[in-house]
From TrEMBL:
Pfam families given in the database record: Dak2
Residues in DhaL domain copies: 7-207
Record-given protein name: Dihydroxyacetone kinase subunit L
SUPFAM superfamilies, sorted: DhaL-like
Gene3D superfamilies from the UniProt entry: 1.25.40.340
Entry-linked InterPro entries: DhaK_L_YcgS, DhaL_dom, DhaL_dom_sf, Dihydroxyacetone_Kinase
NCBIfam families: dha_L_ycgS
Keyword Transferase: yes
GO biological process: glycerol catabolic process
Length: 211
């Protein structure tokens, strides 16, 4: 019951593209403080390309759709976040395989695969002030809810709240990975842009599931 189909995942990606478009200035402002002021533009370029790709083809499973999202991000977005987000979506897609519907348990496993991919590639741990600080608590919240037998909607709500709190918690951290780490202690006092965009991605998922 409440399982998620390809149309749901397509709506999620559309909602991410829409909110990245709305929030790109905020993301770029966060990156201006501790990076090179391109994070919003990077993601907007990637999700605009994804929207165009999806207008031309309709993948027939959630896994195939997420794989397309991942490879487009890798192809179109440079810097740190392109390969990291690209890997996250690709690994999530691979984890879902060719299933046509996704349960809360499947989604928890896919999010875990995304996190594993990000950490394999970027070797950031929690506390390093990166997207991992939003994604890891979201994965934990989703897994816990799925284990408790919650419906996808409730599990996603918990994951989105955890991601928002995780992003907020990067403010007092000192960056140990990525460009922001070059600032050393001067990276303290700013929200990490990648953690903020990860929260946006999970909030978009919540928006679509509560429609
Ligand atoms: P760039 O830093 O190359 O300009 P972006 O500005 O698009 O790339 O993305 C920056 C974000 O990428 C950071 O805020 C951080 O969340 C994330 N990031 C950077 N390095 C890593 C890493 N090694 N592991 C996980 N996330 C990282
Ligand atoms: Mg940047
Ligand atoms: Mg850059």
């Amino acid at each position: 019951a409440g399982d998620l189909d390809t149309a749901f995942f397509a709506a999620w990606i559309e909602e991410i593209a829409r909110t990245v478009g709305v929030e790109k200035e905020r993301l770029t402002r966060l990156d201006a403080a501790i990076g090179d002021a391109d994070h919003g533009a990077n993601l907007d370029r990637g999700f605009t390309a994804i929207t165009q790709a999806l207008a031309g083809t309709e993948p027939d499973t959630p896994g195939a759709l997420l794989a397309l999202v991942g490879s487009t991000l890798i192809r179109k977005v440079g810097g740190a976040s392109g390969p990291l987000y690209g890997t996250a979506f690709r690994e999530a897609g691979k984890c879902l395989g060719d299933a046509s519907e996704v349960s809360a348990t499947d989604l928890a496993a896919a999010l875990q695969a995304a996190l594993d991919g990000v950490q394999r590639l970027g070797s950031a741990a929690e506390g390093d002030k990166t997207m991992v600080d939003a994604l890891a608590p979201a994965v934990r919240a989703m897994s816990r809810a799925a284990q408790e037998g919650k419906e996808p909607g409730e599990a996603i709500g918990a994951a989105a709240s955890a991601a928002l709190a995780g992003a907020e918690a990067t403010v007092p951290m000192q960056a140990r990975k990525g460009r922001a780490s070059y600032l050393g202690p001067r990276s303290v006092g700013h929200e990490d842009p990648g953690a903020a965009s990860t929260a946006l991605v999970l909030v978009a998922l919540r928006t679509v599931v509560t429609r």
